[in-house]
Amino acid sequence: MEIVSYRQDFEARLVELWNRVLWTDTITVHKFRGQALFDDNFDPSLCDVALENDRVGGFILAVKRKFPYMERGLEPERGWISVLFVDPAFQRKGWGTKLLLGAEQKLAALGAKQITYGAYSPNYFFPGVDCGNFPEAKAFFEKRGYRAGEEAYSMKKDLQAYRMSGEGRQKKEEAEQKGYRFINFDYRYALELLEFARTEFGGGWKRNVLISMRNGLAEDAILLALNRAGRIAGFCMRMIDGNPLRFGPIGVAAAERNAGLGGVLLDIMQGEMCRRGLYQLFFLSTDRPGRRFYERHGLSVFRTFTDYRKEL
């Protein structure tokens, strides 16, 4: 086995192996390029391929920021293992360990003091270790000094024959009686929404909104809640990665979180999706309080991820 830096001629073989091993997170060549190779921080020296007689048998993609990410900046003491996998034919032979140790050493040399598996913003493939579908990954990382943190949940809902519940209609009417209005996005709110997303939730949320506007999708993909003064009190959106079924983010201003606006926005969005013939809703990650919120609205968990980190 030899470990070499990624080369373009590995691409097709690498994606084929990815899809065999990471069967829950299959990708296309286009997605691989978009989220890995074309990421601003991609560094071929942090992207290694394990070979056996020119056969691609393992892969690791590590990331260290070279460009600031919103208000997080360069995060100089952080590094990420974005993805790691080994062909089953070569597992339990130390290949994964060699790939991981090599990446850790390179990240440490670049100043990283903490490494996170997955959860690299903005181009993560998954938010952590899927211990349910890949229990061997849990054991692998724990054996090598990674510690489990919080859980994140992927959730979904079938929208066939969706109809807003009586409770949902009542919540909407109560909010409207207090002076709130719910509308599809209009570009006269563009600058206000961008600032709202940044100040209330951070630069990552602003980035999602901005991309939607740049791509001409915002009027179709974003809903606004306006207060009595006509100012934005909350919003929700979908299609942040181009997938029309992907929901989120959703957020309500801290000062406006006593009127059930989040639930109303979610209910309205489900109706909007049905009118467009979109009968499935899903998202990749929420925390435990978020899970409780979504379960009250009929969503269910379909995957659970655990945050794994290591201090160097």
Quick structural overview:
With 312 residues, the chain is an alpha+beta fold. It has 2 domains: 124 residues, Gcn5-related N-acetyltransferase (GNAT) (Aminopeptidase); 118 residues, Aminopeptidase (3-Layer(aba) Sandwich), CATH 3.40.630.30.
What does this structure look like?
- With 312 residues, the chain is of the alpha+beta class.
- The chain has two domains: 2-125, Gcn5-related N-acetyltransferase (GNAT) (Aminopeptidase, 3-Layer(aba) Sandwich); 161-278, Aminopeptidase (3-Layer(aba) Sandwich).
- Helices cover 35% and strands 27% of the residues.
- The chain has ten helices and twelve strands.
- An eight-stranded mixed beta sheet has the order 1-2-3-4-5-12-6-11.
- β9 and β10 (247-252) form a beta hairpin.
- α6 runs antiparallel to α7.
- Overall geometry: elongated
What is the end-to-end distance? 26 Å
CATH class of the largest domain: Alpha Beta
Strand content: 25-35%
> What structural class is derived from the secondary structure elements?
alpha+beta
The tally of helices reads 10
Strand sequence of the main sheet, in spatial order?
1-2-3-4-5-12-6-11
Q: Quickly count the domains.
A: 2
- H/E element string? EHHEEEHEHEHEHHHEEEHEHE
CATH topology of the largest domain: Aminopeptidase
Blueprint of the fold:
Layout: E1 2-5, H1 11-21, H2 29-37, E2 47-52, E3 55-63, E4 78-86, H3 95-109, E5 114-117, H4 135-143, E6 147-158, H5 166-177, E7 181-184, H6 190-201, H7 203-214, H8 218-221, E8 222-226, E9 232-238, E10 247-252, H9 261-275, E11 280-286, H10 288-296, E12 300-311
Parallel strand pairs: 4-5
Antiparallel strand pairs: 1-2, 2-3, 3-4, 5-12, 6-11, 6-12, 7-8, 8-9, 9-10
